[in-house]
């Protein structure tokens, strides 16, 4: 067999492998989007199921560069409970997980909890928690009766880092 024939056979095999792969994203596994008022779905409460993260920070091993980090959090736990109390929409929340930012750094324990007033703006799919002096903002990326996908841009301040770092958290909540 000459090189041209071998190349043609390998190219055809690669094309078959690529075309046989399912290029669909995980969105096929998502339940149908919910209908009706968003606030009514929140009242039942939600458990934090998984968290992924990404961001940039000063590279602790090479101060002339930025280090990019991205991954899935470990030991994820937490919940969001919503209720109406004295004509106020109240949220009681707790998020707790570990981030492994870089090889060679100790994992960071991210904990955020509190109780405050919440509001939702359906025009921009954004949920706010007002827990003085903090305000948390979550963009609702997917809304189903049994699944919520939210993201938030947060500041992580851990003394071991020597700096505050900004990260995007993608949070999956389930009933």
Q: Report the CATH C-level class.
A: Mainly Beta
The structure class reads mainly beta
Distance between the termini: 60 Å
Strand content: over 45%
The overall pLDDT average reads 87
Strand adjacency order, main sheet: 1-3-4-5-6-7-8-9
Count of domains: 1
User: What is the correct CATH architecture?
Assistant: Beta Barrel
Report on the architecture of this protein:
- With 175 residues, the protein is mainly beta.
- The chain has a single domain, classed as Lipocalin.
- It is 13% helix and 55% strand.
- It contains two helices and nine strands, in the order H-H-E-E-E-E-E-E-E-E-E.
- It has helices spanning 3-20, 38-42, and strands spanning 46-58, 66-72, 74-85, 88-99, 108-121, 126-131, 134-143, 147-157, 164-174.
- It has an eight-stranded antiparallel beta barrel with strand order 1-3-4-5-6-7-8-9.
- The radius of gyration is 22 Å and the shape is globular.
Please outline the helices and strands.
Blueprint: H1 3-20, H2 38-42, E1 46-58, E2 66-72, E3 74-85, E4 88-99, E5 108-121, E6 126-131, E7 134-143, E8 147-157, E9 164-174
Antiparallel strand pairs: 1-2, 1-3, 1-9, 3-4, 4-5, 5-6, 6-7, 7-8, 8-9
Short description:
The protein has one domain (34-174): Beta Barrel (Lipocalin), CATH 2.40.128. Mean pLDDT is 87; it is low at 12-25.
């Amino acid at each position: 067999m000459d090189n041209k024939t071998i190349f043609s056979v390998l190219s055809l095999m690669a094309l078959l492998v690529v075309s046989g792969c399912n290029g669909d994203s995980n969105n096929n596994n998502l339940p149908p989007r919910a209908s009706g008022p968003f606030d009514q779905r929140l009242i039942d409460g939600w458990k934090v199921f998984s968290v992924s993260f990404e961001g940039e920070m000063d590279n602790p091993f090479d101060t002339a560069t930025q280090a990019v980090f991205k991954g899935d959090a470990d030991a994820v736990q937490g919940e969001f409970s919503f209720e109406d109390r004295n004509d106020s929409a109240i949220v009681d929340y707790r998020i707790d997980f570990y981030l492994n930012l870089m090889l060679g750094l100790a994992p960071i324990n991210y904990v955020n909890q509190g109780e405050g007033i919440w509001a939702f703006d359906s025009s921009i799919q954004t949920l706010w928690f007002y827990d003085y002096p903090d305000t948390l903002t979550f963009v609702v990326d997917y809304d189903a009766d049994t699944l919520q996908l939210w993201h938030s841009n947060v500041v992580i301040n851990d003394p071991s880092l020597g700096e505050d770092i900004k990260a995007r958290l993608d949070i999956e909540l389930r009933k």
